[in-house]
Amino acid sequence: MLQVRLVTPERVLLDATADAVELPSMSGYLEALYGHAPLLAELGAGEVRLHGGSSADQKFFVAWGFVEVLPERVTILAETAMHPDEINLGKAEDLLKQAEKTYAEAGDNQAMYDEANTLMRQADEMIASAQGKSL
């Protein structure tokens, strides 16, 4: 079994065991199993899914941070993390509106386009997670 910890600057959301952990990295989703080769990756926005063990197949929304995978342990350090029940759809929709506004105002500014795309992805993932869907 993997020991899995999900931590934000404010709290420890999870300290449990799991057979497998799926999580969003900046280069796509990855899955860690017991005995996985050591890995350090940057988190993107999306859903962390735990399978088996004491985690009871839980799901969490995370956005931005890092994950350390060791053969017997996964530590997720997220800037934002919450259980789908904690997601405020109104705030997620406001974030999507902010992203759309940033995109519309970007003009020739590539950094603003990148920020808008990041915000859109985060809002979309939050909304999907709250509705029990995955993108």
Class based on secondary structure composition and strand pairing: alpha+beta
Q: What is the strand arrangement across the widest sheet?
A: 2-1-7-6-5-3-4
Order of helices and strands: EEEEEEEHH
Q: Give the averaged pLDDT, no decimals.
A: 87
Low-pLDDT regions: none
Helical residue percent band:
25-40%
Determine Rg (CA atoms, Å).
16 Å
Distance between the termini: 27 Å
- Total of helices: 2
Largest sheet geometry: 7 strands, mixed
Number of strand segments: 7
In what range is the share of β-strand residues? 35-45%
Shape: globular
What does this structure look like?
This protein is α+β, with helices and mostly antiparallel strands and 135 residues long. It contains 2 helices and 7 strands, in the order βββββββαα. Strands 2-1-7-6-5-3-4 form a 7-stranded mixed β-sheet. Helix 1 (89-105) packs antiparallel against helix 2. The protein is globular and about 50 Å long. The chain starts with a strand and ends in a 5-residue tail after the last helix.
Topology of this structure?
Layout: E1 2-7, E2 12-18, E3 20-25, E4 28-33, E5 39-51, E6 59-70, E7 73-82, H1 89-105, H2 110-130
Helix pairs in contact: 1-2
List keywords for this structure.
2 helices, 28% helix, single chain, 135 residues, 7 strands, alpha+beta
Provide a short characterization of the protein structure.
The protein has helices spanning 89-105, 110-130, and strands at residues 2-7, 12-18, 20-25, 28-33, 39-51, 59-70, 73-82.
